[in-house]
Amino acid sequence: MSFGQVSPEGQAAPTCFRHPQTVSYVSCNRCGRSICPQCQVSAPVGVHCVDCVAQANKNLPQQKTQFGGRARSGAPVVTYTFIGLNVLVYLLQWIIPGFTNQLVLAPALAAYEPWRLITSAFAHSTSSFLHLAMNMYGVYIFGTMLEPRMGRLRFTWLYLLSAFGGSLGVLLLSDPLSATLGASGALAGLFLATFVVFRSNKQALRSMGIILALNVALGFVISGISWQGHLGGAILGILGACCIVLIPRSNPQRARTQILLLTALSIALLAAVYISTEAVKWPLG
């Protein structure tokens, strides 16, 4: 039927408000407008149009995670994204000659090539696949625990703070000419953040404490492990987690307070990184 068709009573046949070429005698139970089958959404009583359904969904109270983030169903997307980026960079390290040398963090080069502060956290040693595998397994374990509780934005912020914290630890405590790479700083931050999240669970803390003690010991015993990066990432992970976790649920400005604290921590971190790179750069100039 076409628009303008006349009904037996001599009146124009009603048409869908979104598709005026389609005749429809079904009306939305909310707004009363005629809607065709394509625009109908089943309701407990009758049908609603897609516009009314969208408006109703906007007015629904937004579900929150345990620590105030936006609750989302499904897989921990941010965790998988970080793992995917690490794997992608690792493949590029094998494919592109000299690519690894452009990513590693050498304190003496950080002031001139600041991108190394973050790229080094996504690159891994090509001499051993185990380096990547162990780090990504850790990111998966702690990411799947933290991301659903914090929400995507807060978890992303925590991960990047920990990664930069690891770079800061290397800048402050490593030899200026040493080269460091790997997601260990970010992983250490996630690990220590988990302590903050589960601080009231004594059994979980005991198990994680044993793992932490072993990792600290290995960092000083086994060569090739950057304890400086682990330490920096761990400190920023704790601080970032405190900004997110320790703000009480009863605080009406909880989300605002979390964002302000995380922003202040990020600014302080960037300032410390800048001062550290200039300090290393000065004697080399």
From TrEMBL:
It is a multi-pass membrane protein. The keyword Hydrolase applies. The chain crosses the membrane at residues 77-97, 117-143, 155-173, 179-198, 205-225, 231-247, 259-277. It is found in: Membrane. One of its GO terms (molecular function) is peptidase activity. Keywords: Hydrolase, Membrane, Protease, Transmembrane, Transmembrane helix. Residues 113-243 form the Peptidase S54 rhomboid domain. It comes from the Bacteria. The keyword Cytoplasm does not apply. Its main location: membrane. GO terms for biological process: proteolysis. Belongs to the peptidase S54 family. This is Membrane associated rhomboid family serine protease. It comes from Glutamicibacter mysorens. The lineage of its organism: Bacteria, Bacillati, Actinomycetota, Actinomycetes, Micrococcales.
